[in-house]
């Protein structure tokens, strides 16, 4: 009697989600809006500094955007679970298009009256943009799986979505700087507005999706928000992954101090500073493309913990380095390892969160990540003032290692996670 031949293993297709026409529209739209926002950030920064000549005014840009975004985050998550996601995205992009056109008008003869108010109109536009982007995150996060449907493709979809975002993050500042340098501020904001319009067009071509059916009785807004928060804080895997990312960014963020390293430690000037700033994103893009071909399924939790530990070790090494190419390599590796952690975290959130709760869970994720970026910059600056630049970076990387060790000890479900 012959033994039947084993069934052939299903072959992994790294381009599986890109074969879906609407997902191609989705990543194209995400690339355009990310590129636009990166260009806008660079040009607004240069424009405000050119007006004020005050470095503190640059910090107020991030504050003007972060405060409204974090303030509306929980409500935005609730809205993403009760209003069709495409409708939210189209509305938000319309507001962002208005903001881009307003910044463009500020630089022309039309904006002469506004310019009499100095930088106040610019900060006001950025504040409105922050409100809109607060609603954008949960809507986009919960809309994407509705385009994919098959849970087996979530990891592939997140990988390509992350690759798109990282690529635009690398290209955006460079394009913004070049257009500003050779075409001026008006042309730069014109390119920004055109990209937002293009993103709006791509999203408009995607068919709308009905809201997922909710389990249980319909809740009012207060109870709905409580349910979302309760779900996150009672799910050890999601909570530990969010906390791990938050504290790693909070203590391990050396990016805010890069100008000091470039000027006083590595002595590489503004050109070298640009290279250092791009290094983490280059590493992230490279790893995201690799993971499209070699997705992580087994021992995902352990790999996430090891990658965050590696991120902390890279930050320590960067703080101690006095050689440009070693510093560049360590920052590149930090971005590479952070990409693994980000993709695993996004995949597990999508996998373990019910469809009808993804907006609320995404809003909690945005609060964790968004607040840690802003507070992490403050922590890095304060630690550098108290300890010195190099000791503060080494301290931050060391704290990241301690947090990984504590998480691995306490969060056994995350440690044993596989997809």
UniProtKB/TrEMBL annotation:
Family matches, as Pfam families: MFS_3
InterPro entries recorded: MFS_trans_sf (IPR036259), TM_effector (IPR010290)
Transmembrane segments: 27-49, 55-76, 88-108, 120-143, 188-208, 237-262, 274-293, 305-332, 386-409
Principal location class: membrane
Bilayer disposition of the protein: Multi-pass membrane protein
Record key words, sorted: Cell membrane, Membrane, Transmembrane, Transmembrane helix, Transport
Protein's name according to its UniProt entry: MFS transporter
